[in-house]
Design brief:
Blueprint (H helix, E strand, L loop, with lengths): L1 E2 H4 L12 H10 L11 H4 L2 E7 L2 E6 L9 H14 L3 E6 L12 H10 L1 E2 L26 E5 L7 E6 L5 E5 L3
Parallel strand pairs: 3-4, 5-8
Antiparallel strand pairs: 1-2, 2-3, 6-7, 7-8
Length: 175
Amino acid sequence: MVAVADMNKSTMSPCDPTSSQDRAWAAAAAVPDPEVPCVTVADLGILRSVEMEGEVAVANVTPTYAGCPAVLAIELAIETALLEAGFEARVERVLSPAWTTDWITEEGREKLRAFGIAPPVAERGERGFFAETLVPCPRCQSEKTERIAAFGSTPCKAQYRCLACAEPFDYFKCL
């Protein structure tokens, strides 16, 4: 089994790039997130593992939250990628443990920032869904920002505005 903890290393692939399991991981891991296409499902850490059960590649996926509207699209895209790579495929939804922003890779965080979305930051002080968080602007890095709305373009993001460069941006909430 190739687990997400193993895959979050800098190489993002296991040792033997020629094995069926490695090729299946690579195919599934390359699927872009449909809501944030600058990152892959592996970058976000929602692709938990890819295992071979005989000739069937089984991908385990944990959505960012249980009500994520994109989860079916993600599962179908992973299944399609595996089929196109020549595998019989099955995608299984895994809800426990729940996904956390800690699973986003460093590469994924950089891709989010480059795309103009502030990656999750460690919250200071009170934790909670509506807690205020100091979020640096992904464009100019200023910490002079303000939250405009608790929800952004998707429920897992909040809308912020930079007071230094005046640009609005999404912030991927820390979960």
